From TrEMBL:
<feature type="transmembrane region" description="Helical">
    <location>
        <begin position="51"/>
        <end position="70"/>
    </location>
</feature>
<feature type="signal peptide">
    <location>
        <begin position="1"/>
        <end position="18"/>
    </location>
</feature>
<keyword id="KW-1133">Transmembrane helix</keyword>
<keyword id="KW-0472">Membrane</keyword>
<keyword id="KW-0812">Transmembrane</keyword>
<feature type="domain" description="7TM GPCR serpentine receptor class x (Srx)">
    <location>
        <begin position="3"/>
        <end position="99"/>
    </location>
</feature>
<protein>
    <recommendedName>
        <fullName>7TM GPCR serpentine receptor class x (Srx) domain-containing protein</fullName>
    </recommendedName>
</protein>
<dbReference type="Pfam" id="PF10328">
    <property type="entry name" value="7TM_GPCR_Srx"/>
</dbReference>
<dbReference type="InterPro" id="IPR019430">
    <property type="entry name" value="7TM_GPCR_serpentine_rcpt_Srx"/>
</dbReference>
<keyword id="KW-0732">Signal</keyword>
Length: 99
């Protein structure tokens, strides 16, 4: 329940930023893009609240993929004993990783 409340709080705080005068964006039909207004507040929001937050998520996902790749590589080393089951499981995990 605490996680749900935390997610709601973060979402509410993130949406409150756009209520200040000049901190909003609009959809331009000619360019088919969302464009921020020409103010300092909108520039700060577009850089820090949009770009850097999304960049952090992308970096996190890339790091997670790299760690998964190295773990699969480490697990693919042959083990003694259950070779057939291990190779079948290994190929299935590699397919999941590629997916």
């Amino acid at each position: 329940m605490k996680w749900i409340a935390l997610i709601w709080l973060i979402s509410f705080l993130q949406s409150c930023i756009y209520q200040f005068d000049g901190c909003h964006y609009y959809f331009d039909r000619a360019t088919m893009l969302f464009i921020y207004s020409n103010s300092l507040c909108a520039e700060i929001v577009s850089i820090y609240c949009e770009f850097y937050v999304n960049l952090a998520f992308v970096i996190f996902v890339v790091l997670l993929d790299v760690l998964t790749f190295f773990k699969l590589k480490k697990m693919s080393k042959p083990t003694h004993g259950l070779e057939q089951i291990s190779s079948r499981r290994r190929s299935q995990e590699v397919r999941y990783f590629i997916q």
